[in-house]
């Protein structure tokens, strides 16, 4: 390593040109910067919202199975499939983002389960159709394995609707 | 349909998917002779129409990419001999699984948005129908988590 000799000292002293108005302008910018920074962060992974929905659907299906024995087998099939969607999506998100990828850790409010089995089944079908639509919109935006993953999740949700029907 | 750009892998995948649609159309013709239940017969007719549509769209797509689409084989071998409604449903399930895998591969290997959307539609139709046949056959799980992969 080479160093200029003599080392310059005091080069960080305020420039005499920095008048009061200049200082005010600088401090105004400083106040803005955190907001600016947070806007310019990387685009969120489009798979994150799919994985979140898979998580809430798993919970909804699990509680539906607990509450309505007559729906239990079908709702458990939905819970199993949606749990696998969530796991596989999270694995892919982590693979791309590295270890520092974060997932919302707070648990979502417990979903309300309809009193009647018909109502509960309808709620499950609505959630699955919504998940199918969301993944179908996402798949063509992606490519390769990720496009296939979102597409397969979408087709999987469409098939699960048949199971609950 | 305007010209479509296909990569080598994309073209191979569409040719393969078209092959599965040809097989599906053939198997639906075969199954018709063995289905006795009226409701199943109606579903079968609807499925046959959908597969002919998907076959035609895959053919058009290859043509618009300047590729000669492969033609259907004169006959196909089903995994098990088809002798009654149950074995016919199993053959139908097998072709829907093949179509799912074929279209998933197209989705993974193509760039044009229009092609990806077609692949997703065909994958979803095939997966949904496979689940209906599994429910009729009592095959569990009736809806695999990842159609086209498992």
From TrEMBL, chain A:
Q: Identify the stretch(es) annotated as Disordered.
A: 94-119
Protein name listed in UniProt: Uncharacterized protein
TrEMBL record, chain B:
CDD domains per the UniProt record, alphabetical: Ferritin_like
- Ranges for domain DUF4439: 13-149
Q: What is this protein called?
A: DUF4439 domain-containing protein
């Amino acid at each position: 390593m080479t160093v200029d000799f003599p080392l310059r000292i005091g080069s960080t002293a305020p420039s005499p040109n920095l008048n009061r108005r200049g200082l005010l302008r600088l401090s105004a910018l400083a106040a803005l910067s955190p907001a600016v920074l947070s806007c310019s962060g990387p685009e969120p992974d489009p798979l994150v919202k799919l994985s979140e929905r898979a998580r809430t659907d798993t919970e909804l299906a699990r509680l539906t199975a607990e509450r309505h024995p007559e729906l239990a087998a079908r709702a458990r099939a939905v819970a199993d499939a949606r749990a696998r969607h969530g796991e596989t999506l999270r694995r892919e998100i982590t693979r791309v983002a590295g270890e520092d990828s974060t997932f919302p850790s707070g648990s979502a409010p417990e979903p309300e389960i309809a009193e009647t089995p018909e109502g509960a089944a309808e709620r499950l079908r609505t959630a699955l159709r919504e998940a199918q639509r969301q993944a179908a919109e996402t798949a063509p935006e992606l490519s390769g394995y990720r496009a296939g993953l979102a597409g397969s999740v979408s087709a999987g949700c469409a098939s699960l609707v048949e199971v609950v029907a | 349909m305007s010209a479509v750009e296909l990569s080598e892998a994309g073209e191979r995948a569409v040719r393969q998917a078209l092959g599965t649609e040809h097989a599906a159309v053939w198997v639906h013709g075969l199954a018709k002779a063995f289905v006795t239940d009226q409701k199943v017969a109606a579903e079968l007719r609807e499925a046959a129409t959908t597969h002919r549509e998907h076959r035609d769209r895959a053919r058009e797509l290859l043509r618009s990419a300047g590729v000669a689409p492969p033609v259907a084989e004169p006959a196909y071998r089903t995994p098990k001999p088809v002798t009654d409604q149950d074995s016919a449903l199993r053959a139908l399930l097998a072709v829907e699984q093949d179509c799912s895998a074929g279209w998933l591969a197209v989705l993974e290997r193509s760039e044009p948005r229009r092609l990806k959307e077609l692949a997703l539609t065909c994958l979803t139709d095939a997966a949904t129908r496979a689940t209906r046949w599994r429910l009729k056959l009592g095959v569990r799980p009736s809806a695999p988590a990842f159609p086209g992969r498992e």
